[in-house]
Every structure is written in structure tokens, then in C-alpha cells.
Amino acid sequence: MHFLLEQYKVMVEFLGQALGGDYEVVLHDLSEGHNAIVAIANGGISGRGVGAPLTNMALRFLADREYERHDYKVGYRGVSRAKTELHSSTMFIKDEAGRLIGMLCVNFDPAHCVQAANAVLALCGLPGMSLQTGEDAGASAGAETFVGSVPDAVRSAIEEVTGATGVPASRLTMEEKIRIVDALNQGGLFYLKGAVSEVAAQLGSSEATVYRYLSKLKN
After folding, report:
1. Which pTM was predicted?
2. How far apart are the first and last CA of the chain?
């Protein structure tokens, strides 16, 4: 882990306790291609732990080089372990040369706030608020999803591209596989260690074939 990130590990623990259990605080190490969680507080919100890979949104930040235009990103949507909508924010951590070395992320789960608001509304005889779920909000395009392993990240990314149609890899044509690899590449999936071998396995191809697809897409 980059030495500059050591101080942020303490910040994760501090913010997790100071903000309370409705806030998940996560530190990602991006130095030397690690691209994984190195510290997390209140991880039950997303169901992740140390070592879990980057989310689809974090990978997009890398692919789009969002960190070169902004120091942080506030107020995008995520989906909790319970499939309710989260309010998420990310700060980009850079070294002295301006290179991205980490991300500090905060995910707020409003479930308890909505419950409290509904109790007050009920006393007033007014209809309550409802939490958006993964089916009607979090699963829509642009929402951040959380996974605990690279195989899960690849599976989730492929489902996002194919619409979770469940088509067996053996029935995919070469052109369809190339389109899938292209979409995964644009989404930054190949920043994850082991992504190429996992994509190859889930598409029923060899690693050499996936590398060939990537090379063809660059031309």
C-alpha cells in the first residue's frame, strides 16, 4: 500500500465511528495496480470487506479519468446489500505528482431516516415515504453496485452489458463477445487484477483470445 494512504486508514475508522452505522466508509488502494479495499468501516451496508475489488463506478472513474477533472465526486447512487438506494460520494487521493493512488468513499444508507420520517408523518395522518429498491432505482443505468470478488465483478459487469439475459457463453458469437469485451474495457473492468482470465472463463474463451479482442479494439 502507498505510504500516503496510511493516514487515511485511521480516517476510515474515525469517520465510521463519528458518522455512525448508516455510513459506510471505504479506502481503495490504487497504487501499483492493487485496485482493492484496504480499509472499511460499517461494511455491512454493502456486504464487502478488505480485499474486495473496485465497484463498477470506481472503475468508470478510472476509465474516464474523472480524477483529472475533479478532486471528488458527490451524490451519485449506489445499491445497498438490502437492495435499497444509497447516496454515495468519492474523494480522489493523489500523490505529489498528481497520480491517482487511492479513493476514499462514503456511502450513506437513508433507511433509518426514512423510517423515522414515516413515524412522524404517521402521527400527522399523512402518507409515508418509500425507499427506492434495486428493482426500481438502484438497478437502473448509472447506479453503483458492490461486489466482494473479481469473479462477482466480472459476472455483474457482463450482466450489465447483456441485460442479464442468461445466454450461455457457448451460444455467443465472436462479434457478440468482442462487443462485450469492448464494453467491459470502456467500463474500466480490466483495471482489476485477474480480470482477463476471469472474463475468458465466463465467456468460454482463452486468455489469449481476450487479449486478441482487446488488441483488435485498439486498432
Report:
1. 0.77
2. 35
